[in-house]
Amino acid sequence: MIRQSPWFLLFGRPIDEESMKKIAIIICKRYQNCGGGKCLRALRERRGGFARYPASENVEIVGYSTCGGCPGGNVEYVPAEFVKNGAQAVHLATGLVVGYPPCPNIRRFKAFIETQFNLPVIVGSHPIPLKYMKTHEKLPFWKETAMAKIAPDLFEEAPEIMALYD
Fold first, then answer.
1. Is the dihedral of CA 157, 160, 165, 166 positive or negative?
2. How far apart (Å, rounded) are the C-alpha atoms in residues 93 and 43?
3. pTM of the model
4. pLDDT in tens, 9-22
5. 149-154: which pairs have CB atoms within 8 A and are 24 or more residues apart?
6. Does the residue 76 lie in any domain?
7. Which letter does DSSP use for residue 33 in this model?
């Protein structure tokens, strides 16, 4: 159903809410007080993990939660709420990748959510801030954990874009 909705105020055009892509974001509990500004900006700009959505595609965030803290207790049940809200994909936030140390459970979270809830999981939300990239490139763990392989959208971003997220 195409109708003028609150989304009209944001996008300036009628929105077909039935065809809108619905996503959810899980952040690291270490950043539980994060206001989500970088993620929301990246979604609006279609950067980082959100680059996969064309600018012409409307995207709605239908859930936002922490992992619950190590070892990730919320990951067991929060995606069920995301599904009830219509989520079609889950993003594991960039903080899980760039926090020090990076989340040791990223692969487990991805496998569990995809298996249990049949939702695709994308590792990454906003671009990696350049200051973190420069530090982490000097450390062995990204190579050892093949982080670029599980979060390719983040590692393909141009340095000048990463600098905008410092």
1. positive
2. 12
3. 0.87
4. 444 545 556 668 99
5. 150/106, 150/107, 150/110, 150/123, 151/49, 151/94, 151/97, 151/123, 151/124, 153/48, 153/49, 153/51, 153/52, 153/122, 153/124, 154/48, 154/49, 154/94, 154/97, 154/123, 154/124, 154/127, 154/128
6. yes
7. T
Q: Is residue 11 one of the residues assigned to a domain?
A: no
43 within 8 A of 127, measured Cβ to Cβ: no
Per-residue pLDDT tens digits for 47-105: 999 999 999 999 999 999 999 999 999 999 999 999 999 999 999 999 999 988 889 99
Cα dihedral sign, 73-152-161-63: negative
Compute the Cα dihedral for 152, 121, 92, 163 and give only its sign.
positive
* Letter string b/e over residues 3-17, b meaning 16 or more CB atoms within 10 A of that residue's CB: eeeebeeeeeeebee
Is residue 1 situated within a structural domain? Answer: no
Domain that holds residue 160: 21-164
Q: What phi and psi, each to the nearest 5 degrees, are found at residue 61? A: -90, 120
User: What's the domain count of the chain?
Assistant: 1
The CATH number of the domain holding residue 158 is 3.40.50
